[in-house]
Specification:
- The structure holds 3 protein chains of 3 kinds.
- Chain A has helices spanning about 1-5, 10-20, 65-70, 105-110, 135-140, and strands at about 50, 75-85, 90-95, 115-120, 135.
- Chain A is of the alpha+beta class.
- In chain A, the strands form 2 sheets. Chain A has a 3-stranded antiparallel beta sheet with strand order 2-3-5. Chain A has a two-stranded antiparallel sheet with strand order 1-4.
- In chain A, strand 2 (about 75-85) and strand 3 (about 90-95) form a beta hairpin.
- The longest helix of chain A has 12 residues, at about 10-20.
- Chain B has one domain (about 5-140): NADH:ubiquinone oxidoreductase Nqo5 subunit (Beta Polymerase, domain 2, 2-Layer Sandwich).
- Chain B contains 4 helices and 6 strands.
- In chain B, about 35% of the residues are buried.
- By secondary structure, chain C is of the alpha+beta class.
- Chain C has one domain: Cytochrome-c3 Hydrogenase, chain B, CATH 1.10.645.
- In chain C, strand 6 (about 300-310) and strand 7 (about 310-320) form a beta hairpin.
- The chains are: A alpha+beta, B alpha+beta, C alpha+beta.
- Chains in contact: A-B, A-C, B-C.
- The interface of B and C includes residues 2, 31, 58, 108 and 134 of B.
Chain lengths: ~150, ~170, ~375
Amino acid sequence: MKLLKKLLFGDLFDGMKITFRSQAPKHIYTEQYPSEHPKVSERFRGAPRLNINPENGETLCISCDLCAIVCPENLIKVTSVRNPATRRKDLTQFTYDLSRCMFCGLCEDACPVDALELTQDFELASYSRHGLIWDRQMLEEGPHPQRYK
Amino acid sequence: MQAAVWESTLAQELTGHFGDRILACSSYLGQNFVEVRPEAAVSVLLYLKEKAGFDTIVDLTAVDYPKREARFDLIYVVYSHPRNERLRIKMQIPEGFEPSTAVPVFSGANWMEREIFDLFGIRFAGHPDLRRILLPDEWTGHPLRKDTSILAMDQAWVQEHVGIESGQ
Amino acid sequence: MTGTFLDTNELVLNMGPQHPSTHGVLRVVLKLDGERVLSSDCVIGYLHRGVEKIAEHRTYAMFAPYVDRMDYLSAVSNGLGYCLAVEKLLNVEAPPRAQAVRVILVELNRIASHLFWLGTHALDIGAMAPLFFTLREREEVLKIFENYCGARITTHAFRIGGLYYELYEGFEAEISAFCEMFQGRLDEYEKLLTENRIWVNRLKGVGILTAEQCKDLGVTGPMLRASGVKWDLRKAQPYSGYEQYDFDIPTRETGDTYDRYLVRLEEMRQSVRIIQQAVKKIPAGPAMAKVPKVIKPPAGEVYVSIEAPKGELGYFIVSDGTIHPYRIHVRPPSFVNLQALSIMAKGALVADVVAIIGTIDIVLGEVDR
């Protein structure tokens, strides 16, 4: 019996049975990308965003500079002025260089007020090296990738 | 570092056999290491392999202390399967000194010594094939020494080839 | 030196850095006599990024993302080794909850790494179907990583002292579902490959490495276990709570390519066993030990190693009491295992060299750092 199986290529047919069975799968794993946007997880480390207080429209950032200190590649620059009335720092400029960012999430972890957050956007391509250095406005609005239908 | 003295039968055997060529037997955070004179390192390795059962070389690395007289620290880590024990052998060598190669004792030290030559510039006397392994053959300099600054290297390269200021 | 046109000379063939079967940018210069290899020489360094030099300019917490990028297929294991080494320097231990979750994620990563190895190794030999199946399974594991820490491959999952991310809703359910599904899939791979006569003929007797040669070279991991040495760092010097779990160490006798394939397949089954045991009893409690905000370990040096999927991954950290490490040296398993290539390839055919490179299971990010 074993000899018969060996002569008639039994082992090869066993393997081919598995491959043929998978020709009509119950679940198609291919994602049709541009037409269906893939679901990424909630904690996905994608594009950064500076959050705004929804009630009064002001930024949540307190210019503590912790994100800039903790970034391994020194890609964040925070500048602020001291407001004499409230005796707090007001954020003036916030630059985030995405060209060498490795999306490690250390800046997001360091922010004490959850102002800096890594969102679920991953379509970040830009036509120029300069376009990847985001200023405060781009960070607050987020990227606007051109969606193809 | 605050190292404790390591006392065990193996330490006594080593000091008994090698006398003053072993400078100290210590232990830090539970990990034992032996400091030896540079000329005696390969004989200590051979003794450990043949008599004490340390049959595998785990790692071979170097550290650079530029302010010290004997600039480099060369460290061998060996492991013994029958005793399930790991041991470090350290020695301090000045610049220009060529330690003997450990390849006759453990052939796995071949590429490890080439890497140290490549990144630190320590030549090993008697190595069968000492040439650069990780960097291109035409590279000048030894990057892991403390006096090479990679920031300066990067800025110089970007200035020369691309013409802009480097982002770092 | 006068010869007829029938004399053969030695041919130098370059399996260049850009080659579909060298698993990265590995260059092998082969000296051939006809189809037989007389000697081989590996040229590496095409992916050298100077990680050890970068480490001297970063703080301990900042360096953790760089560590993922060395062996990029098993980033979670790299992270575990680094965190264990710094925790040893600081003399703290992660709490039991963190240890259990670390074990689960590291074993999942071992499965993912071995799946990728199996798919690409089979592809090199010529079997195209296993690649699609193994990558499909690996997708499930990567989805779990993404749900947990936000990234699929360069995970940065662990922090020094424990875990940063809490377990998400459905962590245990997803992992149990994966383990159930995976057992059946592993049987499918066995049916596809293990008895297949083409597979056996290509792999049996190729690339034999004896136990003595392995120990002399410092080869560790599945290669050592396939040569007959029953040694696994998870059992010999347990870390992160491995002593609580019940698993076997698969070994084989001959040390050829077929044995290494069987050992890795069996390791995947044992990993599923560990995960199923760990997931049933994740202890409650804090996930992070008391670690100072600014990590400044006392001056000293330490060498800590773990059993990564490819072998023994070691971190040798020298601290001088400041916030920057003075020197970090990584002992990569692929770098040391790759030295065995020239010994195993002597006398083999050129097609066998492809099988041998695949069986060593190298990742060039680790070889070159």
